[in-house]
Design a protein that fits this description.
The chain is of the alpha/beta class and 187 residues long. It contains six helices and six strands. A six-stranded parallel sheet has the order 3-2-1-4-5-6, sandwiched between helices. The longest helix is centred in the first third of the chain and has 13 residues. The chain is globular and about 55 Å long.
Length: 187
């Protein structure tokens, strides 16, 4: 099966990454646990709006904040396990200034994929199962791809959606994929 997997908030720990850089640069004491809403990151900082936040995030010594993110525990191992029998399709949204950093990040972490899409319209990338954490993406993919299985990686900034599978850890996702693939499924 084709598994459409988002990066930030699912594989890459964007929240901890930007918080650590922000705290170090500005002597602040923001906690990653403070990030409870989607798109309100500037409210946790001194930036006046999200445009100012993204301007700051775009420039860090020749690379963006996206370049040096850690992975969530178990994410890469789970993806390597799934890659044995399935196609891992990275479907992420990135600003133009983060494209090269994202590609380098994927290579540095040896993410098991042969296919990467950077688009706001994730639903246009045909997959059998999608895994995302962004509320608007979960809703749109679920609406636009009704025959696909949509999974919400549960985070504080998203809410349950009828007909969408809640995933609280990579083990949950592996179990769901293997159940949907059926017994004896292999490439």
């Amino acid at each position: 099966m084709r598994l459409g997997i988002d990066l930030d908030g699912v594989v890459a720990d964007f929240t901890t990454g930007w918080v650590e850089k922000y705290n170090a640069e500005f002597g602040a004491d923001v906690s990653a646990d403070d990030a409870q809403v989607w798109g309100g990151l500037h409210d946790l900082t001194h930036f006046k709006d999200m445009n100012a936040f993204w301007h700051w995030a775009s420039g860090h010594g020749g690379s963006s904040v996206f370049r040096h993110l850690d992975t969530y525990p178990g994410a890469l191992d789970a993806m390597r396990h799934l890659y044995i029998d399935h196609d891992i399709v990275i479907v992420t949204t990135k600003p133009d200034w983060a494209i090269h950093d994202t590609l380098a990040w994927l290579a540095d972490h040896r993410v098991p994929t042969r296919e990467v899409h950077m688009t706001e319209e994730k639903w246009r990338v045909e997959c059998d199962i999608y895994l995302d954490d962004a509320p608007h993406q979960i809703d749109e993919i679920h609406r636009m791809r009704p025959d696909a299985t949509m999974c919400r990686y549960v985070r504080p900034w998203n809410e349950p959606v009828d007909g969408v599978h809640d995933i609280t850890g990579w083990g949950d996702f592996i179990d769901l994929v293997e159940r949907l693939a059926g017994p004896g499924h292999s490439r």
